[in-house]
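INPUT
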Amino acid sequence: MTSVVEGAVKKPPPTPRPSSFALLGSLLAVVLTVITAITVEFSFAELIENLTRRNLVVEGLLSPDVSQVWSDRSLRAFIETLQLAILGTATGGVVALPLAMWATDFGNPNTPLRVAVRTLNAVIRSIPDLLWALLFVTAVGIGVLPGLLALFFFSIAVVSKLTADTLDGVDRGPIEAALASGASVPQMLHTAVLPQILPAYSSFLLYGFELNLRASAVLGLVGAGGIGARIEFFRGRGEWSEVWGLVLMFFLVVFIVERVSVSVRRRLI
Amino acid sequence: MIRLVDATVEYPNGTRGLDGVSLEIEPGEFVVVVGLSGAGKSTLIRTVNGLVPITSGELYVDGDAVHTMTRRELRRLRAQIGMIFQGFNLVDRASVLDNVLVGRLHSVPTWRSLFGLYSRVDTELAAEALERVGMLERSHSRATALSGGQRQRVGIARALAQQPKVVLADEPVASLDPPTSHAVMQHLQQINQNLGITTLVNLHFLDLAVAYGQRIIGLREGKVVFDGPGEACTPDVFEGIYGRSLTAEDTLTDDAELG
Amino acid sequence: MTRPSIPVKPADWVRRIGTAVVVVLVLWSLLGLDIKWERLIDLPADLWRVAVLMFGQMPFDETGTLIAALWESVSIAWLGTMIAAIFAIPLSFLAAENLVGRPIAWSMRQVFNVLRAVPEVILAIALIPIFGLTPMAGVLAIGIGSIGTLGKLFYEIAEGIQPGPIEAVDATGANRLQRLRWGVLPQLLPEYASFVLYRFEVNIRASAVMGLIGAGGIGNDVAQALRFKEFGTAGLGLLIIIVGTIAIDYLSGMVRKRIINGPGATGGSRMAAPAPITA
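OUTPUT
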């Protein structure tokens, strides 16, 4: 039998050594940081030199020109941005709902088809908003249409992802009840699933709208319409006061829309 | 009305829900199925409307062979069979009426149901079903606003709205308190007697089984171990079905007398 | 007996007004936008044409150059994330109500909110004239932009820590800095590491996008290729972006799981952060 070691010299327990995983991870992080710094030619000297130089961008930021926001063109660009975001969310959101449902086991009993829908969703999600815009500008030329198409796909990505997560958690009872009464799968989805996810889905639409509004600001940079085109115009001429004036106004709009949207969303859920 | 011939259900993990069951249930019968949990009660009831397909044997409902049906034929079969669930399976956020109208979906073309365009006949059938369970006044309440007993009455109305030939009830009172349980069982009994609908009910409270079952079927490990009239069910018979002595938890009320 | 009929449905005015507002807004947008809708008819053909141009004949000899460009994007993302983390950790302590007073925490949070609101692309626009069309502009845009999100995540974690260990360190008469080092940090580091990695995944997308407006990395190559109608190069670049981001997401996700769940844990339990959505 093991005897209790009494009277043995009492030592404090050794300080636990960090796990080899943590050590290796930290080391890797440091090495990666050094290598990446070399890749991008990071230099503090340059950083300080560039930041301390007299610079029109910062001067423009310190004296933003908000007055030209009320000019006819800028106002139209603002409205265009808002309309793009609304229409992009509405159309993309409507398409996202069936796409999310067809990716579930109860909404799509056909396994190969389900895999196909899931793959399609994954591909749509992997492409960023600005890249969508660039692709559509290439396909249909500069204008508002490529912007709308970009936001359409971007909305599908956001809304279908969030909706799919919600669908994973629906109560399966009503689904069984609907199927047991002889309902078809679309009928079942409409009566047993949709009411369960409708509040969350509406909230995702609003959230998608918020994201779209932000995204629509940068779409114009690649020629896809909206306020971004206006910002790009002043940037090209180096008129930074005007650029910052527009940016500030835009953030004010985004801020207001977000406040409203968040309070509506809170009520929905 | 319902005929099983050597029906077996084997689940993908190898367990047998049903093991060579042969049964015949006549039109208009009120049959109670008893057995321990895991004995195959739920499986038996779900084979009847094809929610659980039998893996071997034969199953006929109203003369039609369920085991050979296509998806479309299965839907037509299910339209004639109402089902009532332990957990009610209502859509919580939808109104009582919308929940009952689920029972009419089989008669509505899909595109119409997507817009909620139910015909007058469908709405009238729903109203009739709701009145039969005394829930007509609550048509526009949300399902969440109802008590457990009321929710199960809506569940019954949903099944009735189908105008079914058969009603299947899977532990319909397991989530309810004793007085409500009796009320729900009485609703089922009246429907059986007044409308002549063949009724198959799973129960685990033996006193309820004796009180309401014209005929009682005992299942144990997927096999039928008892089949006879309710009056023949003595405590000995139940102990035979359960394979152990009875406890207070096997009855709804503690001082219940069996047989 | 009369036939039963359904009682009249009470009107739900909130719902009706909500629906009306949405319908009006959508119609206003539909009619207001200056779009030639008939061009949508040609859209599938146009897309197909571009797709064929991009993916039909990819110049695979440029794979090396493009992968180097992807590496530059990854470098921009990594360095930017590291810079953001270095600033966000101390700043986040100033935003945690259980570590500092309310007024300080509140004002720090507002700073995070403002930083979070600015898209990286806008930051890049501002930084490009300062740094020229170099990766440095991208690094700083990502660095500044991520301080807000990381700071917010960090102070939320810091507020969720158990008070027990802090109390124990306090009880030994430690000062504020010692309390941070021995009472707070050990609880936080794994979650911090996990969120930094998550942010890195998001930032790879951001840095690929910023390249499109000239802030270095593979986006730059794709944008240039499209501008000069070298569609094959653009297609190959796009493919490399998609495959690259998915591969790095996967790797980083595995490391995150290992960090949070400890050694030997296999899936199923909690993940520190959801899969990134491009935003």
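end of record. Residues 1-8 of chain A have pLDDT under 50 and may be disordered.
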